[in-house]
Write a structure and sequence with these properties.
alpha+beta, 13 helices
Length: 535
């Protein structure tokens, strides 16, 4: 393959080399011609330099995709280059046009006409070789794979769409319905501060489409160069996202296979809201990068969307080990199991103390275990965990930016090291079809090590702890026999039990900081260690 260097501008203006050559020629001594000849020759050279070379197309076919390429080509940025292209490509699927290829090149302005045609560099060589690229792969339930690709490199732009077989009208329509979601994902990566926008792609029709995969690769241009990548995959069993860029990295996996553990839409929304709050708390406490944390929140919300409706209590679950009763689900968050991590790129901002670094690492997860020999001997356990490790510098004077140098006068600051963990462990167990054990354990540990420096001298060194632990026996709430129900009507008992389970559903959510604990728990009995529900 013949490589083509990118040019600094897409506008029909003379290249730097041509301008330099013209300037040098102008500066060279020459016989003094008449004024009219100077004007004529100079004007001719200027016009020749400003003439743009013709755009070269791979195919003469013109459609909405070609129109979008023409409109977006003049943009320098990744997001602008692919503006509207993803939507236009999937829009063609609804029209039955799902096998096509198009590419274009815009050679730099030149005094030599058709220079690219003469050198034999074809636009089609751009396919798969872009500095910026996006690929989308969709597999239908019938087994047909559809692949879209977009490539941008300096003076060219290429797109293609292929299928491994014939699509039904319904499948083609389902592809077209993802047009806006695909474009949103592209536009999100094209921002100066990237965003993960996957909500639209996550709404794929699971009755017709088996999986959706996206890969985006963007070259970072500017003072700090690099590559930012995004990978996304969703199918009936799992959803996952990974991002890597200048600011740091993110990984998120969601297990969508255990449908019987999912809660109602309202229950899931409440759990998502709780986690959004905890992500914000961690970012604030650890001074995390706002862009990375925003990507975590956006991807976490997106990957937990479009989940199948929970199984009815009387149905045999399609996925999951046992049929779960309402009491079982009251100790669960309602969300699918997941693991997530964010790692901020480490910086060393203090040249006088190279051991001090600025960083942010956050991990959070949920795991649900179902065990037992039979439905009547089952146990259910759900564990949630979070961990924050962070370090950062702060100015001693609020509002005054901290600028650390080799100078002693600049060394006025506090250096913070954060280590926080939190966990929640809820479980129930049955024997002979009756609940015999139910418990909830929640713990949190915080540690902030702060060193204060003034004129480069250590003035104080202290560690601030913050711990809490909650143990609760849930049998009085969930068990078959409850005190205080004597004389109650069956309807009143059912109403009271329903209210107790609703309250418990809020209590079992992971709480990362001590201020979130429920004071009434202090009077509850401590559960036994090593219960039957332990996995």
């Amino acid at each position: 393959m013949t490589s083509v260097s990118s040019i600094p501008s897409w506008n029909p203006s003379p290249s730097r080399a041509l301008i330099a050559a013209a300037t040098k020629a102008d500066a060279a001594p020459s016989p003094a011609p008449s004024p009219s000849s100077i004007v004529d020759i100079g004007a001719t050279q200027a016009v020749a330099q400003l003439l743009p070379s013709p755009t070269i197309w791979e195919s003469a076919t013109r459609n909405k995709v070609s129109e979008a390429m023409t409109k977006s080509f003049s943009s320098h940025a990744f997001g602008g280059r692919f503006s509207g292209l993803g939507a236009a490509m999937l829009g063609q699927a609804k029209l039955g046009n799902y096998n096509f290829s198009q590419a274009m090149r815009q050679p730099p302005p030149s005094t030599t006409p058709n220079v690219y045609a003469a050198s034999g560099i074809a636009p089609g060589s751009l396919h798969g070789n872009g500095e910026d690229k996006v690929t989308l792969s969709i597999t239908t339930k019938s087994g047909v794979e559809v692949k879209l690709s977009l490539d941008s490199q300096g003076d060219g732009l290429a797109v293609s769409m292929t299928t491994s077989g014939d699509l039904s009208d319904a499948e083609a329509s389902a592809l077209g319905d993802l047009a806006k979601g695909f474009q949103d994902a592209i536009d999100g990566m094209g921002r100066d501060t990237p965003k993960i926008k996957l909500e639209g792609l996550m709404q794929f029709d699971q009755q017709l489409l088996a999986s959706v995969k996206l890969h985006a690769e963007v070259k970072v241009r500017g003072e700090i160069e690099g590559v930012q990548t995004l990978d996304f995959q969703a199918d009936g069993a799992q959803r996952k996202v990974s991002f890597s860029g200048v600011a740091g990295s993110l990984d998120l996996k969601v297990d969508a296979s255990q449908l019987n553990t999912l809660g109602s839409k309202e229950r899931q929304a409440k759990a998502l809201g709780s986690y959004m709050k905890q992500f914000d708390q961690a970012a604030s406490r650890g001074h995390g990068d706002a862009g990375l944390v925003a990507m975590l929140k956006d991807s976490f919300t997106a990957l937990h969307s479009n989940t199948a409706a929970p199984q009815a209590a009387t149905d045999t679950p399609e996925t999951g080990k046992w049929r779960l009763a309402a009491e079982d689900k009251s100790i669960l968050t309602g969300l699918a199991d997941f693991s997530a991590s964010v790692s901020q790129a480490v910086k060393f901002s203090n040249p006088m103390r190279s051991s001090e670094k600025d960083g942010f690492n956050y991990e959070v997860s949920q795991k649900t275990l179902q065990a037992g020999a039979s439905q009547d001997e089952r146990s259910v356990r759900q564990q949630q965990q979070s961990k924050l490790s962070a370090s950062f510098h702060e100015t001693l004077v609020p509002g005054v930016p901290l600028r650390l140098t080799d100078s002693t006068e600049s060394q006025n600051y506090t250096y913070h090291q954060i280590e926080d963990t939190a966990s929640s462990d809820a479980q129930v167990a049955y024997k002979d079809g009756k609940m015999v054990k139910a418990s909830l354990r929640q713990e949190g540990k915080q540690s902030e090590h702060v060193m204060k420096y003034f004129l480069a001298k250590l003035e104080s060194d202290k560690t601030i702890p913050g711990n809490y632990s909650v143990l609760r026996d849930l049998l009085p709430v969930l068990g078959p026999y409850r005190t205080g129900e004597l004389g109650m009507t069956p309807e009143k008992k059912a109403e009271q039990r329903q209210q107790a389970m609703l309250t418990l559903s809020d209590d079992v959510l992971l709480q990362s900081y001590a201020g979130q604990t429920v004071s009434m728990w202090r009077t509850d009995a401590q559960p036994e260690e090593g219960g039957a529900a332990a996995a």
